[in-house]
## 1
Amino acid sequence: MMTQDRDYEDVLRRALAAAAESIEPGGDGLQRIRHRLDSRRSPRSVFSRFAEWLDLQGTRLLVRLDPLIEGTRGALRRTGPLPGPLLALASFLAGLFSRRGRRRAGGHRGQASPPGRLGAAGAWLKPVLAVSAAVAIVVVGVVILNHETGTLINPTNNNIGTTSPGSSLSGAGTTANSKRWKLPLGVTQSPPAPGQRQNVSTVLPAVACTPTPKPSATATPPAGGATATPTPTVSGTATGTPTPQPTESALPTPTPTTSPATGGTATTTPAAMVVPYEADAPAVVECGAGTKTSKTPSQTP
Amino acid sequence: MTHAAVEWDADRAVTAIYSEHYRSLVRLAAFLVRDTATAEEVVQDSFVAMHGAWRRLRDTDKALSYLRQSVVNRSRSVLRHRMVVDKNTPKPPPDMPSAEHGAIIQLERSAVVSALRSLPDRQREALVLRYYGDLSEAQIASVMGISRGAVKSHTARAMAALRAVLERDS
């Protein structure tokens, strides 16, 4: 058995040597290598090599996507006719991929260079491009997410601005930073109703709009002019009289649970207060017809 | 060493290794890619790559080992690409000979080479490096990027398959 193996090895060795004798490379190999080295040194070749590398990566991607394309085609055949635009899109994509593959396959046949001639540049160019592509994808994703979050919050913010037309700071709701929300002073947050959105605004069923005696709550009148300036204080509590007409609340009609047996003493006011949670803008608290603008102590100079 | 000195040294190394090993490397590549023109391209690319990597090679033996490894890797790339091309191009009519037909016929004059062509790529690489390149198992393992055990396994399987093909044909 061993001698037979040796015989085959000798036969193989002789056959390979004989076949190799018939292979004679061209005599201009060194010139071609030098030409390639010279063209490699020129800065313009960086772009051509990058294009070649892209071409090679495209071919590799095509190979990897081939089962997916075939699977999609099979699925399309099984599902039957598609709606017009979808069918047009599918056929366009299929034609694009097949044309690309054929063009690459045919184009490389006549070319002088085989694939993978990116050489030493590929060693650093590929990872750099891969990392930059990953970073670009992450950045685009973050930007899109930020944009989506902004569009979700901004409409409500606009509503906040429009619900207080009498306020001198009506525009503050639209221009304030919508990401920082905080309860104003003196207002507690109640859990939202099942149909309400929590982060937007909260209808407080029974919040007493009591004027706070803090000096920073209202604009301080000049000395001695306490009786001359009519301060728009809100008197009474919101639980006192249920007003039948809906207020300017942006929310849909809050379900009033007024019981007729109480005879006017409702537990929940339909004229609910819309309290925006805003940190920077002064809070606007509406109670019936009166509007009180209070400033947080931190904003007072 | 300055950049210019490295370049000059690399140019000299390319010239020296070319005059001594270019032919054998082209023949080695031709056994792998089954096409002389492509084999030349592969070897020339490998020389260019070696020139670029000369700063860390700086040794003729290392450079030759690098060249062999580069030739094998690039030959694999060519075969992979050729597989894609064959898959995507429409089949030519049977009476139309392809461009590589003449070169392949040259290589297939021997029944052994023809049987060698029917082997899987890795087994063919192992046999060519072993019996044409006269490399040791460790060198083959280094060039192919596999373990010595894998080299033994590939070689044994390739020899068994080759023997079966030759006995069947004879």
Note: The longest strand of chain A covers residues 283-287.
## 2
Amino acid sequence: MKELLIILFSAILVDNFVLSRFLGICPFLGVSKNVKTAMGMSMAVIVVMVFASALTWPVQNFILYPRNLGYLQTGVFIVIIASLVQIIETFLKKSIPALYRSLGIFLPLITTNCAVLGVTILNVDNQYTFVQSISHAAGAGLGFMLALFLFSGVRTKVDRADVPKFMKGLPITLVSAGLVSISFFGFKGLIEKLFS
Amino acid sequence: MIGIAMIQASSILTPVLIASAIALLLGIVIVIVSRVFAVPVDTRLEDIKAILPGANCGACGFTGCEGYAQSMADGDTDTGKCPVGGAEVAGELSRYLGVAAPSFVPKAAHVHCQGTVDHTKKRYDYRGTISCNAAQNLFSGPNSCTYGCMGYGDCAAACPYDAIYMANGIAHVDSSKCTACGICVKTCPKYLIEIIPKHSNAYSVKCKNKWPGAQTRKNCTIGCIGCQKCFKTCQYGAITMDGPLAVIDQDKCTHCGECELVCPTGAIVNGLMLGQDDKGQPKTTGTPRKAALKQDA
């Protein structure tokens, strides 16, 4: 149980997927302007990550590994994630049309989001068990949500500041993202000490 | 030989079969899900959405053009709710839905303040974020009149039609570009902007100051002091007093111009603003007050 919590909190704080591992930058920059879309996007990412991990882990460990087909990992994982996002999109379009419309292009973009593929591959690389994989995926999604919310606050402030013309827009956003990312280095070593 | 070929075949065949099986299975699931969760597309909705301007401003009272289109597809026959589209869109919608076209009064936004840098003073040197909503939090802004326009341009930034500009320290709406979408009305922290009918000589009290006359006079030389001269002059009952502030009801105003002649401070003006002239000064659709006085005298 302690190990699950360590994995969860490490994925949120220490090895934050966006700010420490630099995965999923595209939706991070694209959706963090508006708090409501940020919330919707984060929920979608958490759901996709957890389900993707739940599906890809058995496929890897029961189908691919026993037959020495580890090299098929990337292709098969992408197919699974793409189908999963398609299914979630269809489901959202019918059940929660408002969320579907506000996410717009970003929902199918989660398919090619390296954060989701990253979670599934890292689960395998770190040789997690099934439950550990789910915990890792949940932590990754929650960390993504945390990064998104923090950064939307930073962006609101930056938007109102007197930015030099050549830095306006993307340059100052990327610099701010880098500075927020550095601030997360402060969490290194926190989780192990907390639970030991 | 054949053994090697068989091993090689199976080492290619097996992964191909497995990958294909996974893909096929997922494909079937997707098809099933898309059938179960299919959303019926209303063609009327798409047609109506195409007629609407697509500004998603919310002036109609619905959440964006989709909301208004949905209500009309569901049977609402009020086609005159879109001020951005105006009479043209209302006419097209009426034709599509087969209802009578609504009578349409074109409207424009109007800033009810004349407190330029010539007429007001600054109480303190504001060094914060250049935003009206931010300055409002600091003792209601740096102007001597705290009801008046601070001129930091939140409305101009919010206007999706570039119809608002800053001149002499306050905001002006170019009524020729304004579509009355209402976004600036919600943005102004002083509630100075109102949507009024677009008459070229609309009469308005360009002031929202509710202080007693003496205090107003000290802080802004062109503000309404609540002397009630206009209130007593108007024969049509279009002017009411909201405490020490006169308010002209645009629906009752007949544009006779008597109120403007009796106003001692010049708070009442006629006309809507237009764009800037060569010197950066705002143009107006109305006649200037001094010219009106000279004509009368």
Note: Residues 119 and 125 of chain A are 10 Å apart (CA to CA).
## 3
Amino acid sequence: MNTEPPVIEINHLVRKYGKAEAVNGLSIRVEAGKCHGFFGRNGAGKTTTIKCLLNLLQPTSGQVRVFGLDPHADEVAVKSRLAYVPDYVAFYPWMTVRDTLDYLASFRKEWNRTTEKELLGQFRLQPDQKAGALSKGQKTQLALVGAVCADPELLVLDEPTSGLDPIVRREFIETVIGTYQEGAPGRRTVFVSTHLIAEFEGLIDEFTIVENGRAVLAIGADEARSRYKKIRARFAGTPPAIDFVDADKVRQEGRELDITVNGNSEAVLERLKLLRPESVSVDSLTLEEIFVAAAK
Amino acid sequence: MLVQLNFKSGKPVYLQVVDQVRSAAASGVLRPGELLPPIRVLAEQLRINRNTVAKAYTELESQGVIETVAGKGCLVSENNSPFKKEVRRKLLADDIDAAIVQSHHLQVDEKDFLRLVQERLEVFAEKNRINADKKQPGA
């Protein structure tokens, strides 16, 4: 049925810096059209992995495929179909915004002028401003405009919103991703590494949490929220001391019991009700809370 | 705003959109023939992925709640489900069964249950009246 290769396929990737293993047996698969979150703490191996996707680094072992191609052997074929915005962007300071975009466009087969105009307007970037005079946030905005205008099939973003103020971060999420996906609905793939997870809550279709160079959780966002729950029970007196072996975490505070569960909320709830609590509430964890629970 | 999302409810995001549009159509907040926001606009308003909104609209279309008109967008259908009456009755019966099960566990008896159904029907009828007045000022 679907014979198209995944947009990103990483199998048992290992990348060492000397003896230190930055990535240690990581596997990830991203199908076309998905918005995939790549979450991990500082030093978990996110940027190293992204660099292996882009042939900026060579894997020590393991396999990396982008559009079914080897980013090293087919570097041009891979790079002409994707755009990458690193966490720190730099432009030639003597070029204007206009020059910079023309320069970026000169490397591309396609360049979407309509999108360019729309995004420049929304970000209030003046075409005659010198790139050297732009603030850090404006430079990131310029890099994003440059990435989206090339109409790539895959957009790779490494900490795209770090260093941006909250208003610009909102705009980024509302407009850049929206504009990008609208270009070819259902076909545009986003691979975004971030630790500002809450901001991407609604945008993420699925995500991988990486810890010490390995995937500790790879799951769809809706499924994650239905599996990870926090149950709060309030008792008339001190909560009975019971051992919830199947709970991820139990915390007692006064007359309240906070129980974090992964996939077995029904069973825990059932047993909890036998203890006759005064009130019980069940909430799903947000993606950020799931991250904290999984990457501890 | 038409849709309010709650990421803590544990309910898939697209289903939250589906249910709220259905409920808006049932209470007259959305009237037949009225346009829904374009996919991208709603996605940006809610700060969610356009895939999610697209999935919700596809589901609403398959349920006959909305229809896509080329060149115009998605609009609320005249109240006609694509299903035969038998099927519609069966679908509703399943939901009523779930409510009956719930009422048993909450110790709500038959009389109370029926009274509550009546009350809720009146609430929706009232909402429809209010929304109809809003849409026709001076009428």
Note: Chain B touches chain A through 21 residues (CB under 8 Å).
## 4
Amino acid sequence: MTRLGRRDALLLLAAPALMLWLDWHGLRTWFHQDDFAWLALARSVDSAAQLWRALFEPAAQGTVRVWSERVFFLALERLFGLDHRPFHLAVLATQTVNLGLLYWITLRLSASRLAATAAPVFWVLSPGLAVPLAWLSAYNQILCGFFLLAAFACLLRWLDTGRKGWFAAQAALFVLGFGALEVNVVYPALAAAWCWLERRRVPRAVWWLWLPAAAFVVFHLVLIPKPAAGVYAQHWDLSILKTYATYWTMALGGGPDAAEVAKNIPARGAAVWLLSVALLGWLLRTAVLRERLAVFGFLWFTMVLSPVLPLRDHVSDYYLALPAIGVAWMLASVLAAAGRAGRAPAAAAAALAAVYALYAGSAHRATADWRYGHGLDARHLVTAMERARELHRGNLLVVSGIDSELFWGGFHDGRLLFRERFCLDPAERPRVVAPPGFPDISAAFCSPAEIAQAFRQRALAAYQWLPAERRLRATTRLYVHRLPREWRDLPPARVAPAEPWAAQWLGQGWHQPEPGGRWTARSAELTLASPDQPGRRLRVSVFRPASLLASPVAVRIRVDGTELGRGQLDRQRPSLDLVLPLPEPRDGWRTMRVAIEAEPVAHVPGDVRELGVFVASVGWE
Amino acid sequence: MRAVALVACLLLAAGGCRRAHHPHPEATIEEPSELRAAIEVANPADEGQLLDGFYPREPGGWRWSAPEFTITLAAPPELAGKDAQLEMEFLIPEAAATDLAGLTITAAIDGRDLAPWRAAGAGAQKAVFAVPGELLRESAVIVDFRLDRFVAPRGAETRRLGIIPSRFRLAARGK
């Protein structure tokens, strides 16, 4: 059994103190990138049903990380809004616990206080940990680390004491870990590996841990579709070896990202080679010496990394956050063994540790600082957007002057925080680069038709981003002054038929406006602007009360006479949101006639009108 | 199940604990709500009426213009529908005299060019443009200026420099 004493209390502080220094900026980074999508999701919740969806509906790439993304953002956003500090306190607290767990585990595995102190320090220095400490959307790595380490600590206690409570606690932590990150699935392999290394056999109870893991894999493979193309496509071929080598290089402070962010430290490639040769040489030797910590470190690195190895085109530094624990153990094992072997080996091991600290630490610090700057820009932009929205509620807010970095860091997801529509001026499209695999960005740009409509309704506000001042400058007068003349008479992109302004765009077949929409006759027409870019989709929202749905009603949508799509209303489904891809824009196509046809029509006693469907809105997006 | 319900209630209720948040008023630079018919380029209070084409303030407050620049001025009610004149006081520095020799300035309101004005040479001068009454029906005008010559970038100076405007004014014709 491994008991901690006073001396351990001091040694335990080394890694958290280093983390505070190294990530001084990182731990104060403001929200950026995907953070806004989670914050927007939190803001959208105002009923139990929405809360359920927000907590459990699969998000991008089919992930459902209930604790590390959903509860984390939902709870803290509800309590503290756009104050990033409580979020970072949660990150800091979790990681401090992780470092304590790593100290205890290393002490138990190696019986060396030097190794136990060094392993958390090496982990803190790892480049892979910089992003999860700075970027709140990557908290899943930190929280998953907690579940893996805590479960593993319970396993060790169970192995030492034989008490079933420890095993049950381990199993519970393992199952709960699925709510943090999918990588958690490798835990049974880690547990089995250590049992075999220490006891040359795997206890039967440990095999039961594979059951939830297998269930999770089946659930993930069968129920959640995997992209066949793009950066998240999986490649089960020899590229896995190359990806593994890339991650190994990055874990030791190398790779193109490190060279890019920490330019002032030369010979990075040579340092990675030196560290690699030393560690792999040590690994071969420990296999003979049965130095378990180094071998387990290598297995940990490989196993925890394995779920992301098929993602050949999505190599990300933060995927190394948890595998880096394995590298830390390998280095700590070198240090501890060298310390026992005499002065010369100890000096060589210390030099090796210093090389790692310099290269990995510099890449870590530079990454954290870069994230901090990125967050600062996003903070200024989103704060300015908040102010603009406060001054122009309900308006269309057109922004220009945003470059690619700020677009992805703050604008693209930051605009989701607001009910008002913020969009970039269409002329800005060439300024924004969308790397392969990034989401479609067309919705982030205003269409000329919606600008024209907002202009006619005097609901247009234009702003220019001033990079030097990090402020938005109102430019509505100039923007309107320079609005292309051919835009001004464009029909709208979207019509709400009940709105008074919409009447001029409605053709035949409409009844009088009513609250929330208008009834059509058997067929009704309206004019919209033609789509401004490929990929636009027409959305038609129609309804007929169940009392008027004695038989199903076929709803057909035509554009310029050609059928675009159809749907059906019936008693089970009295409302319909038809979303139909529009044809690609072509030269000279400025307006389009949209026809909504309903068959059969309904009649209400005392009302002579033919009632087709009740239309709330028609428009493309 | 009770625990889940409790967590759900806490999450939904938590929004009420949050303090009201108001973004900093200086996060944006807003357009002036009231425009003036006469503005000074060096006056920070008039900066909002310099819409485009002005380089950053130099020590002393003066600013170079680009070869194209745009301002907005209030059209006082007494000028509504009446012929008026647009005045621009500006400087052509001696150092730029060669590049700007024979400079012609064109002003346009609402896309309509006013009669162009030809600069006499280097030094301080005042350009006056006749504005037909039909261009003064709104409460404000936006004026686009174009120069047919400019000082091309050279050496460390990477900007295309026009003139140094100091004052703009919309006034009744002949006053």
Note: Chain B has a mean pLDDT of 89.
